[in-house]
Amino acid sequence: MGFGDLKSKDGLSSLNTFFADRSYIDGYSPSAADAVVFEALASAPASNYPHALRWYNHIKSYGDLRKSFPGTRKPVTSYGNSTAPAADGDDDDDDFDLFGGDDDGEDAEAALEELKKKRVAEYEARKAKKPTVIAKSSIILEVKPWDDETDMKEVEKNVRSIEADGLRWAASKLVPVGYGINKLQINCVVEDDKIGTDFLEEEITKFEDLVQSVDIAGFNKI
Amino acid sequence: MAAVQKEFHNISSFLGVSCGKITQDGSVPVLKGKAKGYTTILKHLTRQSKNTSLFGKNSEDQAAIDQWLEYRVVSLDRCSTEKDVHNRLNELNSYLKDKVYFVGNDLSLADISIFQALYNILSGMTFYEREKVLHLSRWYNHLQHCEELRQNLSVLIFSKTLLYY
């Protein structure tokens, strides 16, 4: 977490990338987070950081109102989501603490635990509010018959007869393989949580009189 | 309900006024007995709501907002081909590069009007296409999280794929 040193080039460019698709540090309105990061900047970012500069100018326009932005102020290093180098001093003492007293460690741990719980609760609350997006995938299946005498129309009819919650069949076509044999390419849209590719393969290979094998020719997340 | 009626419905709920019956004369919206034309009705509704900050703080801002309303009607609404739409989007995108709102540092009629116009265009685009107009997407994403403004339009999803950077 953190943007790194905001006075260095790296810090500014991570700030710039962060703001490419955001208007504020947190959420969609100005908050104390903006004020903290704003104050951590020595001056307006140079024009080769256009996103950071746009944000800077916007926050600047609030003038003294900035001091009363809602939210609690946290240290500047806790904002942002770039993979800036972690704060120093975190890992160093771990190795030497093996036999040391645990007293202060426990306190800190308890505080951390509490913070974590709070974060999780906040996250859950936010997640609950968001309309859930159903993850869907479009899958292209290749169904191969035994020989050229297999009635492909029958194959297709059978495949389409498979019904399940979260499964929808779409367009299909016959692709010649050679020697008069065609394979059936059929497209379907599935909801990731409900239907797996294993299920589809299993169900289709159940028509063993007609179907020799099933392959996945394409798999795209929608 | 035609697109323009829906739009006025959304805007008037945002403003907290009732919009009355909007009909259409050709492509020109008409507010019965009161006003004719998109911009006229929009301004009429805004004045009714006494939400005058949407008109801009000073005369420069007011002029700029008027210009964007004109742009909306003359340019954005008259795109006939894909290429037109594409050019308009790029135009808006480069304008918004260094801005959070269209005019000044506050929400104005310009934002509201263009936001409503872009919903139909952006909702038909893929993630990748939306990402190509990143500044515009950022602006849109920012505005759509104001629920009064979005009303019953669905939330569009924007995602920045790090792959292209």
Describe this structure in words.
Chain A: Residues 73-94 are annotated as: Disordered. Chain A: InterPro entries: eEF-1beta-like_sf (IPR036219), EF1B_bsu/dsu (IPR049720), EF1B_bsu/dsu_GNE (IPR014038), Glutathione-S-Trfase_C_sf (IPR036282), Transl_elong_EF1B/ribsomal_bS6 (IPR014717), Transl_elong_EF1B_B/D_CS (IPR001326). Chain A: One of its GO terms (cellular component) is eukaryotic translation elongation factor 1 complex. Chain A: Keywords: Elongation factor, Protein biosynthesis. The complex is a heterodimer of chains A (222) and B (165). Chain A has three domains: 1-85, no CATH class; 88-132; 136-221, 2-Layer Sandwich (Alpha-Beta Plaits). Chain A has helices at 9-19, 32-40, 50-60, 103-129, 152-160, 197-205, and strands spanning 136-145, 167-178, 181-191, 211-221. Helix content of chain A is 34%, strand content 20%. The two termini of chain A are 30 Å apart. Chain A is built from six helices and four strands, in the order ααααβαββαβ. A four-stranded antiparallel beta sheet of chain A has the order 2-3-1-4, with helices on one face. In chain A, 19% of the residues are buried. Chain A is α+β, with helices and mostly antiparallel strands. The mean pLDDT of chain B is 86. Chain B has eight helices and three strands, in the order αβββααααααα. In chain B, helix 1 (3-15) packs parallel to helix 2, helix 3 (59-74) packs parallel to helix 5 and helix 4 crosses helix 7 (134-144). The termini of chain B are far apart. Chain B has a domain at 80-165: Up-down Bundle (Glutathione S-transferase Yfyf (Class Pi), Chain A, domain 2), CATH 1.20.1050. The longest helix of chain B has 16 residues, at 59-74. Chain B is globular and about 50 Å long. Chain B has a three-stranded antiparallel beta sheet, covered by helices on one side. Classes of the chains: A alpha+beta (222), B mainly alpha (165). Chain A binds chain B through residues 17, 20-24, 27-28, 50, 53-55, 57-58, 61-62, 131, 133, and chain B through 97-100, 104-105, 134, 137-139, 141-142, 145-146, 155, 157-158, 160, 165.
